[in-house]
């Protein structure tokens, strides 16, 4: 099965100034497209040709895992944003309750999440995921790894590869991560949580 570039669900300038149109053109149009192209070149004639992206991530290694993992990670990442709105941007209902149970409060969760993203050495991703009991966890995953490899259901992620923020924030990773909160579409995150 050939994979294709998942289109952005918003205009390329919708997330400015936190994520500029230039960053999206590079990050989505060049980096993610390259992972898609690489995977499509690597899998023909292998057992992975007929598998879903998630199954490839669970069963492959090496270059195939790296590219499949990055496609899965970026698809979840780009789909979770929307243009910022006026007023506070908070999760509600069952998701908010689970966050408060796991981390004490929503602001405490935000602090921990940004801290884990800031202290991840090198390239990778910080994730909020749910386990089989619906309990929430923050994990750091290096390079192309995804929480599904730990049996977790991924809900929310911040990309801490430098290509995600260098054009707009240079080396100020923590400032970039802190500025992402108004862009999160909590309805999408709640939908991922309910599916689990
Ligand atoms: Mn990226």
Can you tell me about this structure?
This protein has 196 residues and is mostly helical. The protein is built from eight helices and three strands, in the order H-H-H-H-H-E-E-E-H-H-H. It has helices spanning 21-42, 53-59, 62-79, 93-103, 106-119, 166-169, 173-179, 186-195, and strands at 124-130, 136-142, 153-159. Strands 2-1-3 form a three-stranded antiparallel sheet, with helices on both faces. Helix 1 (21-42) runs antiparallel to helix 3 (62-79), helix 4 (93-103) crosses helix 5 and helix 5 packs antiparallel against helix 7 (173-179). The two termini are 26 Å apart. The mean pLDDT is 96. Residues 27, 31, 74, 159, 161, 163-164 line the site of manganese (II) ion (MN).
What overall form do the CA principal axes indicate?
A: globular
Biggest sheet, open or closed, and with what strands and sense? 3 strands, antiparallel
* Order of H and E elements: HHHHHEEEHHH
Q: Which structural class should the secondary elements be placed in?
A: mainly alpha
Q: Give, in spatial order, the strands making up the sheet with the most strands.
A: 2-1-3
Strand tally, please? 3
Q: What is the tally of helical segments? A: 8
Helicity, in percent?
40-55%
Named CATH topology of the largest domain: minor pseudopilin epsh fold
Distinct bound molecules: manganese (II) ion
CATH architecture classification of the largest domain: 3-Layer(bab) Sandwich
Strand content: 5-15%
Q: Which runs of at least 5 residues are low in confidence (pLDDT < 50)? A: none
Termini separation comes to 26 Å
Query: Roughly what is the average pLDDT, rounded to an integer?
Result: 96
Superfamily at the CATH H level of the largest domain?
Answer: Iron/manganese superoxide dismutase, C-terminal domain
